[in-house]
Amino acid sequence: MPTEDKGDIKFTFLHLENRDYPALISTDTQNSLMKWSMKGRLNVHTFSFDENFMAYEVQTFLKVNFANYSNNSVTSVQKNLFTSNSVIAVVHGDGFLVPSKFELVVENVPCTFTSLNVFRKVRELTARSDGTIKRCYDDVIDSVLVSDELRKCLLDTDSDTYGMLTEDERNQFLFRIFKHLCLGGELCQSEDNIDVYIELVRKLYRDLISVQKNPESRELQIISRVYSVKLLENDKLVFPSAKEHPNTFAYTIVDPLKRNVILLYHVFGCGDF
Predict the structure, then answer these.
(1) Are strands 42-49 and 260-266 parallel, antiparallel or unpaired?
(2) pLDDT 10s digits, 122-177
(3) Domain extents for the chain?
(4) How far is it, in rounded angstroms, from Cα 113 to Cα 111?
(5) Residue 216: what pLDDT?
(6) Which of 74, 92, 139, 260 is most deeply buried (CB count within 10 A of its CB)?
(7) Which helix (H) or strand (E) covers residue 42, if one does?
(8) What keywords are assigned to this protein (predicted)?
């Protein structure tokens, strides 16, 4: 039987079933997600944990790590987020699977923006003064229909507007949420006005991210740690989906003070009606 080394770091996760996200559960948002073909495919869950989280321990925090096999026994066992029974049950309940053995791919996602200034630039580049998104000739990029200047700015690396945003701006979690909502699902009906996306991103970002005031500058600073995650089995993607797509994604958002972690993920496809 495997034995647990008491010196190992082991995180225990509890699903907070009553944790709500006002930005997502409102009637207006649910109608928008249905219109964008994301309803029922965009999932968010919160889990609490009792142990201290350190950024350098993120690999340990997110995955199981088996080591030192000897005589069919395991002398080091670390059972963490994606091997937690609580997390596995929730993901299965959403209709998706977490494999029993996997390789974890983690990307640190910058999350420092405390204003919506980046969207002023996007709005000026892709929309008219009233927010109406400019149209363009139809194209298909990464299996996504591009029929307006907003999607062109988000996906077309050869467009004039794509280069107007810096790599840091595009990598920021705030901008990623915006891009995900704009791309939508397989039967997405895009909005005519960019302000619809910006307003929902503002509310959702506030729900997902924790901030505190810097005691010296008195300015708000973000304390949440955001990671993009993928699970591979035999070098093949299995979570959040076995099929790669620009709008299939999974993020973990860790609040080290409240000791909560949010699992936010979406699988591209036909949403609920």
Answers:
(1) antiparallel
(2) 999 999 999 999 999 999 998 899 999 999 999 999 999 999 999 999 999 999 99
(3) 14-72+84-268
(4) 6
(5) 83
(6) 260
(7) strand 42-49
(8) Cell projection, Cytoplasm, Cytoskeleton
First-to-last C-alpha distance (Å) of the chain: 48
Report the C-alpha gap between 92 and 84 in whole angstroms: 12
Q: What tokens does 1 get?
A: 């039987």
Q: How far apart are CA 102 and CA 238, in angstroms?
A: 9
Contact (Cβ atoms closer than 8 angstroms) between residue 227 and residue 182: no
Please say whether the beta carbons of 232 and 102 come within 8 A: yes
Q: How many CB atoms lie within 10 A of CB 52?
A: 10
For every residue of 223-258, DSSP letters joined together read --EEEEEEEEETTEEEES-SS--TT-EEEEEEETTT
- pTM > 0.85: yes
Which residues are CB-neighbours of 258 under 8 A, at least 6 positions away? 48, 210
Short-list 112, 216, 130, 209, CA closest to 169: 112
Strand partners, 254: 225, 261
DSSP 160-229: TTGGGS-HHHHHSHHHHHHHHHHH--TT----SBHHHHHHHHHHHHHHH--EEE-TTT--EEE--EEEEE
Within 10 angstroms of residue 181's Cβ, the number of other Cβ atoms is 23
